[in-house]
Every structure is written in C-alpha cells, then in structure tokens.
C-alpha cells in the first residue's frame, strides 16, 4: 500500500498524514460509480435446510471427518467436491453451517467448475471491485498492517465477514488455492457462535438489542486510493443486528467485525467506540474459538459468513499466492429473540436428557419392583393381618 495518497501528505512536525484519505485526492472525489446501490432481495431457501441432519449421503462417499477444534473447523478427506450430488452438497452446507468452515485437500475443481458448483447454493455475488467476472481473485498480504493503520482507516488485514455491509450479505464463500508459497499466507477463522457464547449473560442481553453499523465507505475510499479503479457501486451503510439468528441452525451468532463495523446505532459515539474496542479485544483473544489453515495448491475452504469471521495472516513471503473465491447472496440478517446460543442449546439438551433419564427411573418404583410373599403368609384375600415381604431384586435398575 505504498501508493496511498495520504503517504504523500505528511506533516513535517508530526511525521503523520495531514489527513487520512484526503478528499483533495481527485481519484476519490471525482469517481462516479457506474452502478446503483443494490436493492434488497429475497434469496431462495438455504440449501442446508433440505439436508439430512445425519448427512448419510455425504458420508456414504467414504469421506473421513476430522474436527480441528471443539468450536470450529473440520477437514473432509477422501472426497472430491466436483463429484458430489445435489443431496450431498446440501448436507455439506449443513455441516458448514454447524462447523463454520470445512477444508478439503487435493481438489480437481477448475474455475468454471467452481462457479457451476457454487450456483447450487444461490445467486453468485459480485464484489464491488469486480467488473464482470463471477469470482474474485484473492492474493496474500506482505504488508505491515499495523503501520498501514497510520495512512488508511480501513483495516484491510483484519477479521471480517465478506462484504457484510450489503443489504444481503453473502451466506457461503468458497476459496480454492491455485498458487501458494510453501510457508506463510495462512488464513484464520473465528466462530461467531463461540464469540457470542464467550460473553457474560448480562453482555449477551445488552448486545441482543443493538444494531451494528456496517459500512463500505472505508473500503470504497481505499480501493480508489490504492487501485485507482472502481468501485462499481456507491458506498453503503447498513444497520444489521449485532447478534443475528442463523436461518439453518437457529443459533445466535455475534454479527460484529472490525473490517466493516464502525459503530452501534443505539449508542452514543463514546459508548460505541468503547464497545468496539472491547469487541476487538474479544475477537483477537478468542483462541479457543479459532482455527488457522495452512494452505497448499489444490486446497479448498468452504465457510459460512453468518457464523464466522476470517482474515489472511500477513507474511514476508515472495512466492505468489493466488486463490479463486466465489460467494452467494444470503438473507438479510435478522434476530429472533426466541433463538438460543450454541452453549445454551447444549445445556438445554443436556438438561432434557437428564430429566428424561430421571423420569424413566421414576417409573421403576416400588410398585413395579417384583415382590415375594413371605412363607406362610397370604396375599390378595383382603385380610388385614396378611404379611407381605417386599424383596427388591438385585438386578432391578436403580
């Protein structure tokens, strides 16, 4: 990012930019986007909604599943995405919705095959910087993003969910790696289910009622400043629930990311800034809800933007890094107050199972225990002096 305009306007006193993204930069000031802001759409029902919860068809392929962490990330081996049936693709979407991101090695997909496969999940999205192609070329980052923060307010190397500022942000994304250095250029994902779970109950209730302000303005200016081309559409600000309900799993997920969220609609500026600072710390300390993937050529990652955030890990590698990313439009984010957190659901199911087990045990009461009549006594003739000895058998369940 050496060509950022703000690097050319440095104060001789402070050594810092006179202003970040100066609007005397003609590239920003005079750009007229050729397209209008997108209108809201109602996408087709999520393909994961049609899946068998047990995913029998997907694993009938002989696929081997390995969960990388408790919270997020799964590898599927012995499987080719290009060979999956529509039913298997639906079940894969359900697995992705549950696990956040699923990885594959040694895939034979081509770019055309990737685009065709991903159309199964909906209408292909087009990034604001794209012109006509149906995919985005993803490269690595060898920049010092800590230093770049002095010159641009857009945290381009930080965690984000793909174009979360859209009225209909992407649901699923797929990245297939075509070129990659032997070391460096990893990608990290963090579970937004897990980030919500890690909040205290009081904070959860507070955040449940907020709307996060997602904006493309910072990215818009930086794309113009840095690349000198595009974007295709004017900048947009959207207010999405700070906690969203996943339409497939029904779980609550935090819907805040430092890449595109600049505040909270219901809060005053200072309150909003402090909460953003907290979520920045919360996200970057969430090792127990994170997974980091070391790429190789032919690797594929398929993730759910509604349940995760991700970022490329900067490095100093010199070998090329090139990936092909496809995304599809999702539903407009919403919050259902009746939805539950992932941990909350686990606790509820555990309590229900314990209650069911206790109920089964209660049915094996004294009335159901085999009885033996003491020698010389009688039973059932109505005599009050009848003596009945109840003998609990040793093999009766407790």
From TrEMBL:
Gene3D superfamilies: Clavaminate synthase-like (3.60.130.10). This is TauD/TfdA-like domain-containing protein. Its cofactor is Fe(2+). Residues 367-386 are annotated as: Disordered. GO terms for molecular function: 2-oxoglutarate-dependent dioxygenase activity; metal ion binding. It comes from the Eukaryota. One of its GO terms (cellular component) is cytoplasm. It holds the Pfam family TauD. The keyword Oxidoreductase applies. Belongs to the TfdA dioxygenase family. Keywords: Dioxygenase, Iron, Metal-binding, Oxidoreductase. Residues 66-325 form the TauD/TfdA-like domain. It comes from Exophiala bonariae.
């Amino acid at each position: 990012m050496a060509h950022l305009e703000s690097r050319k306007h440095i104060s001789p006193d402070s050594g810092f930019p006179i202003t970040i993204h100066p609007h005397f930069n003609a590239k920003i000031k005079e750009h007229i986007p050729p397209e209008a802001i997108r209108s809201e759409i109602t996408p087709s029902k999520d393909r994961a909604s049609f899946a068998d919860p047990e995913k029998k068809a997907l694993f009938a392929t002989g696929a081997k599943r390995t969960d990388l962490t408790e919270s997020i990330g799964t590898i599927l081996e012995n499987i080719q995405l290009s060979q999956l049936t529509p039913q298997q693709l639906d079940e894969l979407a359900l697995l992705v919705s549950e696990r956040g991101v699923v990885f594959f090695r040694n895939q034979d997909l081509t770019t055309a095959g990737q685009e065709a496969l991903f159309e199964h999940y909906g209408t292909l999205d087009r990034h604001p910087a794209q012109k006509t192609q149906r995919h985005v070329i993803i490269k690595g980052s060898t920049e010092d993003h800590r230093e770049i923060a002095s010159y641009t307010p857009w945290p381009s190397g930080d965690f984000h969910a793909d174009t979360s500022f859209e009225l209909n942000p992407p649901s699923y994304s797929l990245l297939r790696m075509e070129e990659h250095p032997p070391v460096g250029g990893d990608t990290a994902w963090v579970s937004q289910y897990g980030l919500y779970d890690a909040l205290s109950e009081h904070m959860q209730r507070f955040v449940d009622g907020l709307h996060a302000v997602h904006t493309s303005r910072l990215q818009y200016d930086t794309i113009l400043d840095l690349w000198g081309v595009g974007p295709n559409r004017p900048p947009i600000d959207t207010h999405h629930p700070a906690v969203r309900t996943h339409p497939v799993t029904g779980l609550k997920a935090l819907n805040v990311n430092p890449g595109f969220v600049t505040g909270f609609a219901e809060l005053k500026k200072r309150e909003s800034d402090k909460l953003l600072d907290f979520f920045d710390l919360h996200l970057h300390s969430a090792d127990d809800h994170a997974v980091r993937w070391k790429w190789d050529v032919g690797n594929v990652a398929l993730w759910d933007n509604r349940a995760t955030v991700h970022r490329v890990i900067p490095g100093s590698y010199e070998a090329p890094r090139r990936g092909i990313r496809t995304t599809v439009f999702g539903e407009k984010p919403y919050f259902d107050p009746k939805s539950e957190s992932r941990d909350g659901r686990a606790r509820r199911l555990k309590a229900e199972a314990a209650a069911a087990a206790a109920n089964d045990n209660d049915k094996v009461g004294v009335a159901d225990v085999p009885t033996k009549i003491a020698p010389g006594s009688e039973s059932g003739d109505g005599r009050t002096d009848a003596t009945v000895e109840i003998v609990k058998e040793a093999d009766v369940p407790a």
